[in-house]
Amino acid sequence: MSKYKLQATTAQNSFKYGWLLKRIFPYIKPYWFRILLGFIVAIPLGLLDGVTAFALKPYMDYVIGGKAFIINWHGIHLSFSSIQMAFIIAFGVILFAAVQGVLRYLNGYLSTWTSQRITNDVKFDLFDRLIHMHPQFFDDNSSGIIISRYMSDPATASTGIVDNIKTITTSLFGALGLIAVMLYSSWELAIIGVLVLCVAFLPVALIRKRIKSASNKNMVIGGNITTNINETYNGNKVMAAYELQDRQNKYFRDQTWQSFNVNMSLYKRAGWMSPLMYLIASFGIAIVLGVGTYLINSGHMTAGSFASFVTSLLLLYKPVKTLGNTLTGIQTIFVAMGRVFELFDLEPQIKDCENPIELKGLNKDVVFKDVCFEYVPNQPILKNINLTVPKNETLAIVGNSGGGKSTLVNLIPRFYDITSGSLMIDDIDVRKYSIKSLRHNISMVFQDNFLYSGTIRENIMMGNPDATEEELADSIKYAHLQDLISELPQGLETLLGERGMTLSGGQRQRVAIARAMLRNAPIVILDEATSALDNESEAVVQKAMDNLMKNRTVFIIAHRLSTIKNADRIAVINEGELVELGTHDELMSIEHGHYKHLYEMQFRQQEEEEALNA
Description:
Elements: H1 17-28, H2 32-47, H3 50-64, E1 69-73, E2 76-80, H4 82-131, H5 135-140, H6 143-185, H7 187-201, H8 208-234, H9 236-241, H10 245-270, H11 273-297, H12 303-344, E3 365-373, E4 382-390, E5 394-399, H13 405-410, E6 420-425, E7 428-429, H14 435-440, E8 442-445, E9 454-455, H15 456-461, H16 469-478, H17 482-487, E10 495-496, H18 505-519, E11 523-527, H19 535-549, E12 553-557, H20 561-566, E13 569-574, E14 577-582, H21 584-588, H22 594-613
Parallel strand pairs: 5-12, 5-13, 8-11, 11-12
Antiparallel strand pairs: 1-2, 3-4, 3-6, 6-7, 9-10, 13-14
């Protein structure tokens, strides 16, 4: 399977933690000071977890025991009664809680800020890679998979890494603070408690691969669900017309249940971890209670020290459990990181050569020499095409459906690269020109032209952002858009809906023609630009196209006979081969010719209708 097929990627590097951290480090580096500050805040935030447990020792020994607390230090003598100690300890606990609250807020703010900035930077770079991918990449992948891989995975990877590392830091120092309190209370019991916790922590290491597998499956399923929603939205009229609601609903339910089954499968294999940890921990508590009772009865430990120790031990389960859950979550993050960097490692097939040439207009011709092309290896779409199109010639391309007409013209702006042979503009292979300059010299109008969300002005100006108001007005005039714009209350500033669906098909085509006209490129490609229109709309669009074609080199895939007959030459493509080339009259004179057969089958009735309407 092609490496560009995103469903095929499975985050092979998700266990290479050093490699992943090295790849993510350039995104972390610009914010290292804030991240470091966050870690510095996380250390006392964790250590303060032990304050409450530590306070229990003096509370039990002095407040409950009714003894005075006496301090003798370098000549300083202080004495506090049990009542005073009760107030001091209570006030101290409140003070520490307030300090911990402030630190927790600062830690959360710094964590959120850095995480969002890193996420944005990763998304910016990844989106930049996405928009420069070759068209076949988009042919091979559904919209849902692309959205999931390019938007969801970066958020999972970069947002989680900083948050979870800080959580680990806080939990680790929280555990260290509590262990310090335990050691202060009783080193013998501390050894028992820490050993038991280490044993309880082992199950986390056993589920890494299961988490990786489930994370991959869930991410793929999530992409499929997004695709289904996109298709439901974009194909809503087809869905309604053909009553496909049950079909879409079934797909959605099946995919959602797949996600449910993956999650339940993971839980069945990993869900025993937490109960097992608690079971092991309960053995530890039982041992501590038995040994602690012996130490108290033998006078080696006070009741306050034991209460402080047991509280520390119980509190220690929280950071350890958090640490276990966090490490489990981090494995999911590393899976997402692996998937993200697999996207970064995808190089577009269509890219500039070293030291590319700038194309500055068309001076001579466009030449196809022994051009072959295949989307899939060993399945040729074009076979040995030899064709020379001089400057300012209009070439109509006709042929059977699926014969390779659109593929032929898509090779000129390098939407795809030829498999063999050469495609030259002014005797230079198109692959030697910079992609930007090559495409800047080509205007294209497609069968279903895409208009972006925004105003009509913005969509037309995409053809040439530096165009003057006079040039914009001329493109509108020659595209026959004046009437449409004058009828709209906001004129050129009218906002279009998604994909320009607020306009009719003919209106969208004329906006696209105005956009192409504003580019003022020497090469024009018209790919079935009027095939989806009714007769009235087609007539207006045809006038606009005629203006666009003046004094330019034009490649036109057309179904309208008048357009084909008016072309300088007609190329007949059949099953990927150039089978005939000449004017209408020349091709009609070929007995049993492909063009003549096509004319008899498709164009004769059209010619009669045009003569009738004349």
